[in-house]
Amino acid sequence: MDFPTAFSDTPESTRADHAVKRHPQAEKMTAPDPQPTRRRFLQNTAVGAASAALAAPLLAEEGGTRDLVRRENERPGTREWMLTNTRIDSETKYRCPWIEGYCSHTSLRAGETIRFFVSTNPASEFTLDLYRLGYYGGEGGRLVHRLGPFPGKAQPDPPVGEKRLRDCEWEPCAELKIPEDWLSGVYVGKLTEQREQLQSYVIFIVRDDRRADFLFQCSDTTWQAYNRWPSQFSLYDDGVEKWYWGGGVLVGFNRPYGKYCQILDQPLSIGSGEFLLWEFPFVFWLESLGYDVSYVSNLDTHRDPEGLRRAKGFLSIGHDEYWSIEMFEQVRAAIDGGVNGGFFSGNAVCGRIRFDERLRAFERIGVFGPPGGTREFKSMSSLLHERPYANELIGAHSTGPVTGGADWACAKPGHWVFEGTGMKAGDAIPGLVGWEWHGDPAPIPGLEIVATGPTQSAPDKPNGGVFTATIHPGAGGNFVFNAATCWWADGLSVPPGYVRPKVYTEPLGPDPRVQRITRNLLDRMRA
To answer: How far apart are CA 86 and CA 103, in angstroms?
Structure first.
C-alpha cells in the first residue's frame, strides 16, 4: 500500500497533501485572500519565534548530536504544560466538547507543516501553547511556541461511517512549519478556551533521521485503539459489546483523543492518548540522565524500515499492543541486522492491524499468537491466528488470562542484567508486573528467563498465569530484552502529573533496582 500518502505523514515536497484534500478550508488558508484564522496565525508567529529562540539552535553547537538531549534539558522548564482546569461531558463519559482538537500528523520532521483542528462548544476564543515533554530540571516540559487567540466555533460531530469510523472533517485553525531547532520528542499542545478557561491537549511527535543510541517508539496505534471519542467508538466497541475483541471496526486519527477509558482516572489523558500514563515516566527518567534518544511513532515503524537501523537500541514502552505485520517484520529485520531490542512493555505486539489506504485509520485483523493462547476474549477466536507469533520477536507474549499482576521476581541472579542490584534468586520488586504481561517463552536458542512468577487477579488470589521476563541473543552480538509488564516505567520515575496505577496489584514507584537493571540494559546496548 502507499501508506505515507494515505496517512499524510510524508514530507510536503513529496506527497499529495491528504489533509488539504480532506479539509477544503485548509486550501483557503493558503489562498491570496486569507481567512481570519490564517491572519491570526501569522500574527502569532513572532510570539512563537521568540519562545523557540530561547537558546541557539542545538544542531549548530559543538559535540555533534549525541549530547543533544542533555543540552535540550538544560533549557528553562515549566509545569505550565499541565492541564489545570478539565471537564468531561457526563453523557459521553470521555470527551471535553468545550475545547477539543486533533493534529494533521502523528509525527513529522523539522521543516514540515502541521495543522491543528479545534472545536469549541459553545463557541469561544481559545489559545494553543506548544510544549516539548522531557525532564527539564524536573519540570517535565518546555514552552516552544504560542498560537492564538483564535475565534473558535463548534465543529460538527462526524457521522458514523464505514465499520463505525468517526472521521472528523473539521476546518483547521492554524498551521505551523516545524522549526529546524526543535529536537525530536513528544510535543503536546495545551488548548485553553477563554469562556471558562477549560483545557485539553493535542499531541504529536517530532522525529528526525539522525543516528542515535536509542529509538523510542511511541505506542500511538494503541492510544488510538482505546480512544472512545466521542462515546464508545474505540476498537473495542462494535455497538453491542463494551469490550469487543473481533474485527470489522475502524478507528482513525482524524479525531480528538478522549479521556483514557480504563485502569485509572487521569485528567491529563484528555487529548494525549496513553502517553502520560505509561510512557512519560520512562522519557522523564531517560532524559534526566542525558541518554541519546530519538522518537518515532508506530506509524514511522510501519513505513520506514531503514530508519530503524539508525539506532543501537529499539525501545517499546508501556502498552504497545497494536502492530501491523510490516512493523513486526521490519523490527525483526532491524534486530537481525544488529539493533538491540528493549521491550519494557506488556501486552506488546498482540493485536495485528491493517491500515486503511484511504484514511488515517486501521482495523484489527488478527492476533500475533497461537489459537487458544489467550483465554479471556470470546471474539478473539474469530480473528486470524498465524505466525509470526509475538514471542518469536520479543521472547514471550500475551498468554493465559492476559491481565493480572505480580511481583517481579529474580530468577537468574548471576546474569549481567542484575549487576549492581544485589538481587538474589526469589528477590522481588513488589507490584511491578501488571496490568498485562507476557508469558509462554519461545524456544529461541540462548533464551534465558531472568524473572518469573505466578500472576494474580488480586492479592493472594492466583489467576493461573505465569509471567516470564526474558533475554535472548540476536545474530550479531546484540540482544532482545522483554520486561513482561506494562508498568516497568513506574519503577523509574514520578514525573509531574503522574498517576500511579492500581489494579490486580499496585507498583510502588521508583526503585533503585529497576533503575539499575534499566541502565545495565541501555548501557550494554550502546556500548
So the answer is: 20
Amino acid, res. 303: R
CA-to-CA distance for 477 and 517, rounded, in angstroms? 19
How confident is the model over 55-88, as pLDDT tens digits? 333 443 334 678 999 999 999 999 999 999 999 9
**How confident is the model at residue 64, as a pLDDT?**
65
Half-sphere exposure of 40 (CA within 13 A, CB side): 17
The secondary structure of 401-426, three-state, reads CCECEEEEEECCCCCHHHCCCCCCCC
Overall fold of domain 279-526: Rossmann fold (3.40.50)
Q: Which cell is 411 given? A: 530468577
- Residue 512's CB is within 10 A of a number of other CB atoms, namely 11
* pTM confidence score: 0.89
435-458: per-residue pLDDT in tens? Answer: 999 999 999 999 999 999 999 999
Name the H helices within 202-349.
220-225, 280-288, 298-303, 325-336
CB-based contacts of 393, cutoff 8 Å, min separation 6: 328, 331, 332, 335, 341, 349, 480
> From CA 240, how far away is CA 231, in angstroms rounded?
13
Residue ranges covered by each domain of the chain = 279-526
8 A C-beta contact, residue 368 and residue 331: no
Q: How far apart are CA 334 and CA 475, in angstroms?
A: 11
Tell me the pLDDT tens digit for each residue of 78-128. Answer: 999 999 999 999 999 999 999 999 999 999 999 999 999 999 999 999 999
